[in-house]
């Protein structure tokens, strides 16, 4: 399938909603927990078993983004969005069959394996195209799309819960809910497939920098550069620090203020988790857009440096002041979201637009690593501290010190980022070749 | 003037508005539900 070239007059403002239709859908993955209790009671599963479809889905997200990135670059965004639509929706349809026949392995395979491929391909599908359409504001453009991934859970969480309430929480109710999800997301994502276009010439916006300006590095060469691995460490440390709060947000705020005159109720803790989701989403679009103004390296200095300070504030004063605890956690979560959303633009600055989607896909293995590392650190330490007879805020003190250390490591890695050496650049195309390419795209 | 406008590409305003409403409406629903839940932090 050849990439769909935009006809004359095609507005670039049609591309972000195309991207959002995919990201708002696949962001449902973070609302999987809604299905856990009904699955556990209907199929007699343990908590660990009911988490399997989500865990496999996230693993497949990382793997398919890493290994499918080059295919996405070669076949274009419409192909990628079509694959994402088919896999993500089929995952739900297979899960519906699995729930109806009470074959749990089919839910794990459908949602986790097949749907997970849709997550990975869908996540990277619009990145390269958005950067090409918005060479003047790549941070904002990718921020809009990646904000959608955060927004997807906000939509799916209440929607899925209401559906289960209407259809019932037995196996046939769950099957019907999965079926409606699969069909609805297929229709919703179709907008992205139909609307997405690649720009017809390498210079879509008057006055904006050309997309072919600066160094261009292939995905194969990029993974051999120290810059790629520095950014890998930066992303991994930033995500680990965010997950450190996100993973145990509700019990954390309850434990912190359990022995004070103003303890936090269960419903207030749920409100705190919701507020963190809002900060995560706002950070994706807000901080990523800010990076277009102050530069990518500077914004990561803020994420990692100020993030470490926020952790220090919580560790030192968090249990004595609720506002300090809440505000610091919100800032950390906004940096967590911002880190995700800004990384494609950082990659574009260093490696150019040539294969930025494929490079982004490979870098997402840092996310998978952090997804294991963050919860492991916080949960393991909290369990050990509890066994040692500690309680309240002291359960988390050591975790926070480790998070500060990780953020400092990320800060140093960001400082080590330098322009990519010229030996990794692909040879610049001659003026004649660029003219021929432009003529071909205009006659398409 | 008329020949210029006949050669200019078609306006996509309607399509742009439709596309943004398509993705904006469910997002607004999600944000509304989020705000409802987040207020529990101050009232719960």
UniProtKB/TrEMBL annotation, chain A:
Limits of the Major facilitator superfamily (MFS) profile domain: 1-417
A Pfam family the protein falls into: MFS_1
UniProt KW Ribosomal protein keyword: no
Entry keyword annotation includes Glycosyltransferase: no
Compartment annotation: Cell membrane
Top-level taxon of the source organism: Bacteria
Parts of the chain that traverse the membrane: 12-32, 52-72, 79-98, 104-127, 139-161, 173-196, 228-246, 266-287, 299-318, 324-347, 359-381, 393-413
Keywords (A to Z) from UniProt: Membrane, Transmembrane, Transmembrane helix
Membrane topology: Multi-pass membrane protein
Classification via InterPro entries: MFS, MFS_dom, MFS_trans_sf, Proton-linked_MCT
UniProt main location, coarse: membrane
Name the record gives this protein: OFA family MFS transporter
Organism: Streptomyces plumbiresistens
């Amino acid at each position: 399938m050849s990439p769909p070239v935009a006809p004359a007059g095609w507005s670039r403002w049609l591309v972000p909603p195309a991207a959002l239709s995919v990201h708002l859908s696949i962001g449902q993955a973070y609302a999987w927990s809604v299905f856990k209790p009904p699955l556990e009671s209907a199929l007699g599963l343990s908590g660990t078993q009911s988490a399997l479809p989500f865990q496999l889905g996230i693993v497949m997200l990382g793997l398919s983004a890493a290994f499918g990135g080059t295919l996405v670059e070669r076949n274009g965004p419409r192909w990628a969005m079509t694959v994402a639509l088919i896999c993500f929706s089929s995952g739900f349809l297979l899960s519906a069959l699995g729930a109806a026949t009470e074959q749990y392995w089919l839910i794990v395979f459908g949602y986790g394996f097949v749907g997970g491929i849709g997550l990975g391909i869908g996540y990277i599908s619009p990145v390269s195209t958005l950067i090409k359409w918005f060479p003047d504001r790549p941070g904002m453009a990718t921020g809009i799309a990646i904000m959608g991934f955060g927004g997807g859970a906000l939509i799916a969480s209440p929607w899925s819960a209401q559906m289960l309430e209407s259809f019932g929480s037995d196996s046939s109710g769950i099957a019907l809910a999965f079926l409606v999800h699969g069909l609805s997301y297929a229709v919703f994502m179709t907008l992205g497939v139909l609307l997405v276009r690649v720009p017809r010439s390498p210079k879509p916006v008057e006055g904006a920098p050309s997309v072919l300006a600066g160094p261009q590095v292939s995905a194969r060469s990029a993974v051999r550069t120290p810059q790629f691995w520095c950014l890998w460490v930066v992303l991994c440390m930033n995500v680990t620090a965010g997950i450190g709060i996100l993973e145990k947000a509700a019990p954390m705020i309850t434990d912190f203020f359990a022995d004070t005159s103003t303890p936090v109720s269960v419903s207030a803790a749920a409100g705190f988790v919701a507020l963190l989701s809002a900060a995560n989403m706002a950070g994706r679009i807000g901080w990523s857009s800010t990076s277009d103004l102050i530069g990518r390296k500077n914004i990561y200095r803020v994420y990692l440096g100020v993030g470490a300070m926020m952790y220090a504030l919580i560790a030192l004063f968090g249990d004595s002041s609720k506002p300090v605890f809440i505000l610091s956690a919100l800032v950390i979560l906004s940096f967590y979201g911002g880190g995700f959303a800004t990384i494609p633009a950082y990659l574009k600055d260093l490696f150019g637009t040539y294969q930025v989607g494929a490079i982004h896909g490979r870098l997402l293995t840092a996310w998978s690593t952090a997804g294991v590392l963050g919860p492991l650190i916080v949960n393991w330490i909290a369990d050990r501290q509890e066994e040692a007879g500690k309680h309240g805020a002291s359960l988390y003190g050591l975790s926070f010190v480790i998070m500060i250390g990780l953020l400092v490591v990320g800060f140093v890695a960001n400082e080590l980022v330098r322009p990519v050496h010229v030996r990794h650049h692909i040879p610049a195309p001659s003026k004649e070749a660029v003219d021929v390419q432009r003529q071909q795209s205009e006659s398409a | 003037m008329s020949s210029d406008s006949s050669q200019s590409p078609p306006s996509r305003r309607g399509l742009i508005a439709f596309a943004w409403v398509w993705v904006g409406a469910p997002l607004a629903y999600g944000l509304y539900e989020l705000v409802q839940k987040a207020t529990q932090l101050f009232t719960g």
